[in-house]
């Protein structure tokens, strides 16, 4: 199979669009993107990161928490709320960071909430994955997220190869 790399677009200062063709059905890709046990295996925006804890309440109004830890022991914990959940098709959710993400429960957030839309578009037995991350507070934040998401989505695509 031919591996297709990420296509990253930055149409404006506050928007990031990442596309990738996955060797998986939309159903399988959606499950891997939203299941805590799968997230713990692929969500690594930096080499050496681990995910000690992932929680998903996959329903409109439900919350998620993904706790990532780098090799130096620093925590990066993403939290948000699901705005739209269409299994195997589309997810819309908020994205923010906890100020101190080292605990096991939801903590105080930074308050720079952005919005993510993920689409899983059927292409035969494959899926076109399209993630649009918007409402960044700065170009620097967008560009930092672009690096992290590119690495995480590469890991996600590799996970889909299993």
Give a short synopsis of this structure:
This protein is of the alpha+beta class. The chain has an 8-stranded antiparallel β-sheet with strand order 1-2-8-7-6-5-4-3.
Q: Which CATH first-tier class would you pick?
A: Alpha Beta
String of helices and strands = EEHHEEEEEEH
Q: Give the full name of the CATH homologous superfamily.
A: START domain
Distance between the termini: 13 Å
CA-based gyration radius: 15 Å
Poorly predicted regions: none
- Beta-strand fraction estimate: 35-45%
By secondary-structure content and strand pairing, the structural class works out as: alpha+beta
| CATH fold description | Alpha-D-Glucose-1,6-Bisphosphate, Chain A, domain 4
Helicity level, as a percent range? 10-25%
Strands in their spatial order, largest beta sheet: 1-2-8-7-6-5-4-3
Features:
Alpha-D-Glucose-1,6-Bisphosphate, Chain A, domain 4; about 25% helix; alpha+beta; 3 helices; globular; about 160 residues
Account of the protein in words:
The protein is α+β, with helices and mostly antiparallel strands and 162 residues long. It has a single domain (17-161), classed as START domain (Alpha-D-Glucose-1,6-Bisphosphate, Chain A, domain 4). Helix content is 23%, strand content 41%. It has three helices and eight strands. It has helices at residues 26-34, 36-42, 139-160; strands at 7-12, 15-22, 50-56, 63-69, 75-86, 90-97, 114-123, 126-134. The chain has an eight-stranded antiparallel sheet with strand order 1-2-8-7-6-5-4-3. Helix 1 crosses helix 2. It starts with 6 loop residues before the first strand and ends with a helix.
